[in-house]
Amino acid sequence: MEAVTRVAGVAAPLLQINIDTDQMIPTSFLGGTDAKGYGAYLFHGWRFNPDGTPNRDFILNQPPYDRAKILLADRNFGCGSSRERAAKALREFGIQAVIAPSFGEIFYNNCWRNGIIPVPLPIGQVRCIAEAVEREPGNCEVLVDLEEMTIRSGDDCFRFEAPAVLRSMLLQGVDEIELTLAKKATIESYRVADRKMRPWAYMSVA
């Protein structure tokens, strides 16, 4: 997994409540075992008309939001099923941070494991960022700083909280296995000490 310390760029306002994972990546595109290629189907039912042409009314089809790195949403973003490919689709499309008042719990955890910073922020502050972005489309850069745990938009600066372990994993670009292996020396030291205290636990059974 690629390390992410900060995300800066265009933020797309999609201030709807209860955007679920099926809207992000419809079931019809979940076939196969390949873990890649889902970005093309992100918000497929909204991004495309029934005849397959782009829906020009959808925010992510409109410049400059078609190159957004940050998504602004309303409460309960990522609710619904636990499909990890919803987070994968966002990341492949280019979204590296989502700012919303609240998230579906499983989706929130999937974001961290797929290179996306999920930022819980009060709706008043989310709307403040959205208003600044809409006043100057393409000229109002939003910065999400995971090291400082701040969001900067124009003259505004908002702080956010993040789970310590998940934050550390994304800052380092490692998953749980790599995080555990980094403590290999400590684990081995414990194993050696435990073997001396409980030798019977390490006896092989014939």
Please provide a written account of the structure:
This protein is an alpha/beta fold. It has a single domain, classed as Aconitase, domain 4 (Alpha-Beta Barrel), CATH 3.20.19. The protein is built from eight helices and eight strands, in the order ββααβαβαβαβββααα. The chain has a four-stranded antiparallel sheet, with helices on one face. A hairpin with a 2-residue loop joins β7 and β8. The longest helix is centred in the C-terminal third of the chain and has 14 residues. The chain is globular and about 70 Å long.
Question: How is this fold's topology laid out?
Answer:
Blueprint: E1 6-9, E2 11-14, H1 21-24, H2 44-47, E3 70-73, H3 85-93, E4 97-100, H4 105-112, E5 117-120, H5 123-135, E6 142-145, E7 150-153, E8 156-159, H6 164-172, H7 176-181, H8 184-197
Parallel strand pairs: 2-3, 3-4, 4-5
Antiparallel strand pairs: 1-6, 6-7, 7-8
Compact description:
33% of the residues lie in helices and 16% in strands.
Keywords:
single chain; 206 residues; alpha/beta; Aconitase, domain 4; 4-stranded antiparallel beta sheet; 4-stranded parallel beta sheet; globular
What percent of residues are in strands?
15-25%
What is the number of beta strands? 8
Q: How many strands, what sense, and barrel or not for the largest sheet?
A: 4 strands, antiparallel
Shape: globular
Number of domains: 1
> Spans with pLDDT under 50 lasting ≥5 residues?
none
N- to C-terminal distance: 42 Å
Mean pLDDT: 92
Q: What would you call the structural class? A: alpha/beta
| Corresponding CATH architecture | Alpha-Beta Barrel
What's the CATH topology name?
A: Aconitase, domain 4
Instruction: Identify the CATH class.
Output: Alpha Beta
**Order of H and E elements:** EEHHEHEHEHEEEHHH
